[in-house]
Amino acid sequence: MVNVGLVGAGPWGRNLARNIAEGEQTVLAAGCDTDAAARRALAKSYPAARVYETFEQLLAHRDLQAVVIATPSRLHCEQTRQALAAGMHVLVEKPMCMTGVEAEALIRQAEQAGRVLMVGHTFLYSNLVHDVRRRVVSGELGEVLCIYGQRLNLGRVRSDVDALWNFAPHDISIACYLLDGWPRSVNARGASFVQSAQGVADVAFFQMDFDGGAFVGGHVSWLDPQKVRRMVVVGSSKMLVYDDIDTAHHIQIYDKSVQCDFQGCATDFSDFRTRVRAGDLVVPNVRLIEPLGVEITHFAECIRTGARPVSDGVNGLRVVSVLEAMSRSMRQRGAQVEVDYGAWGPREAAAGAREVAAAEPEMVGAATQ
Ligand SMILES: NC(=O)c1ccc[n+]([C@@H]2O[C@H](COP(=O)([O-])OP(=O)(O)OC[C@H]3O[C@@H](n4cnc5c(N)ncnc54)[C@H](O)[C@@H]3O)[C@@H](O)[C@H]2O)c1
């Protein structure tokens, strides 16, 4: 059993606390939060856990082997650094850091300390996302032409990060996982209305350029009337909709495509013919297994075996690097911006995505037993 300390018991921290406490390989030994109400709620739900006010007190808790960090994003880097320095294994929430340079320092620190560094890219632990990937990889959808995500909500408006940094880590990590690659360049446009003086974007549209040629983009917002968590994969022979909140239709596969009949170069409009094919809609019966539970089990397994997590520090760095490039693009009103992965450049980055893909079947098998 791994004794885990939770840092930050806000709404997401409480989900983590439940999964740590219910985990077969983890014990919620301690927690900390600077907010008194959050501390009281944690202590009430988990009387066996020792609850502290400060992070430093938590790190001094006896027999603690790991920490899970779920504080506001701007604290992630420094708290991870301190926890690794104190000899802890660390699972830090997304975004891992605010810059690729910070992320690189943490990767090296964890390597030197021989500790697990894992990032909370929760959807890489979703059996729904694994199912979508299997359909992409098997060629069931044909050639992938287009992928786009929508992660929309009314609130919760944050001030420490904008909507891009809050939501897009998920779309980026899922898309890169589906395509076995990382974008060379990106562009993004954003707009701020609620905190316009501070320039915190409430809504953003982004696009990522992959070597394979698929058109990949996303729309994130906390200023939208509906809660939407959707990803659409348009293939040359079938189209797939993955909806994380539509429990009856998590995955829908449309046997639909558009084909161009004209075999040469259309010189006049009458030569141009397209054929729309609209076949069956299939809704596979895929039961959602709580990804956070799978993630926590994977964290404990990696601590026990020394294996590299699927969402390791390098995976976290690459997502942060893509976000940094998107933010630069937003400041330049949507200019195309190269992604700088530092020591983990495009070729190495592509190899890294394959490592994630290769690690997945073993993890899925373990999660579904
Ligand atoms: N992986 C996911 O799917 C997912 C989903 C939601 C949120 N998150 C991430 O989880 C993190 C937390 O999200 P949230 O919505 O609970 O945020 P939140 O801001 O509501 O809660 C953060 C908590 O941390 C506490 N805190 C602040 N400074 C602290 C410190 N120095 N030491 C200890 N505690 C401190 C706050 O009092 C608060 O209770 C964010 O980084 C967010 O990006 C991830």
The CATH superfamily title of the domain at 125-282: Dihydrodipicolinate Reductase, domain 2
Count of distinct strands: 15
Report the structural category.
alpha/beta
- Residues in helices, as a percent range: 25-40%
Low-confidence runs of at least 5 consecutive residues:
364-369
Reading the helices and strands in chain order gives EHEHEHEHEHEHEHEEEEEEEHHEH
Strand order of the largest sheet: 14-13-12-11-7-10-9-8-15
Mean pLDDT: 91
Please state roughly what percent of the residues sit in beta strands, choosing from under 5%, 5-15%, 15-25%, 25-35%, 35-45% or over 45%. Answer: 25-35%
What bound compounds does this protein have?
nicotinamide-adenine-dinucleotide
Helix tally equals: 10
Tell me about the largest β-sheet: 9 strands, mixed
List the helices and strands and how they pair.
Elements: E1 2-7, H1 11-22, E2 26-32, H2 36-45, E3 50-52, H3 55-59, E4 66-69, H4 76-85, E5 89-93, H5 100-113, E6 117-120, H6 127-137, E7 144-154, H7 163-179, E8 185-191, E9 203-209, E10 215-221, E11 223-235, E12 239-243, E13 251-260, E14 274-282, H8 291-305, H9 313-331, E15 337-338, H10 346-368
Parallel strand pairs: 1-2, 1-4, 2-3, 4-5, 5-6, 7-10
Antiparallel strand pairs: 7-11, 8-9, 8-15, 9-10, 11-12, 12-13, 13-14
Helix pairs in contact: 1-8, 4-5, 5-9, 6-7, 7-9, 7-10
The structure holds nicotinamide-adenine-dinucleotide (NAD).
Nicotinamide-adenine-dinucleotide is lined by residues 7-13, 32-35, 38, 55, 70-73, 75, 93-94, 120, 122.
